[in-house]
Amino acid sequence: MVMIARRFNGPPLSGNGGYVAGVLAERFLAEFGPTPGAKVQVTLRKPPPLEKSLTLRQPPETEVLRLMDGGTVVAEAELVEAAGELVEPVSYDEAVTASKDYAGSVGHPFPTCFVCGPEHPTGLHIFAGPVPGRRGVVAAPWTPAEDTSGPEFVWAALDCPGGWSAGDLEGRPVVLGRMSVELLNDGEPLVAGAPHVVLGRHLRTEGRKTFTVSALYGPSGEPVASAEAVWIAVDPKAVRPEGAGGADAAGTAGAADAPGPAGATDVVRD
């Protein structure tokens, strides 16, 4: 069983995509183990509901793990090739300067987002702003707390900076559709209380889809993780889980494709 606590929202009524993907990725690795040369990719099919018991299911003869809300697939994880690009770093001071121009300080489509929402009282407060002289690149400082230093928070931290690298999210709101993360520090935990730097870079936009990469650097400037993501343009008011009293968001990553983890023994195998 998996439950996404209300604290970890993205849109007001659903889970933050990066955090939910990170939780599912950890469950996937606990079930199947890591594979050299591969990384976990998570596709979000529906807005993840909050404070609801979700189940894990493995389709027959696959190494795919699905997060289920009853009979509905919310998200699914699988392995993909680890090849990817790493966003070039900036110094911590440069990230602090960039964050001062964070576009989400005003006109944020989801101002209570756990990762980047200025109105979330206990969020990560990763406010990625444009890096001077580097088109399409944003950066932010981040100091993980003791309760936000687990591997799922690496995914969360890498999430929103990618979205903000796309530019005008007030005029063109997007939500995470698919994300893959490569851990570059042998899976070592984040250093709580130490300064980190997160960057995002916009690659391209094709119709409703936006493609980005992001990277997380540790206190000594060492690369901690990198990510690739696909984002889907949405109407913010429509991003609601099924049964949440509004229109369903039609699968944030379905369009892209056409409390913490429990033990691995609760995976249902079809």
Automatic annotation (TrEMBL):
Gene3D superfamilies: Hotdog Thioesterase
Biased composition (Low complexity): 249-270
Region called Disordered, residue ranges: 241-270
Protein name according to UniProt: Thioesterase family protein
Top-rank taxon: Bacteria
InterPro entries from the UniProt entry: HotDog_dom_sf
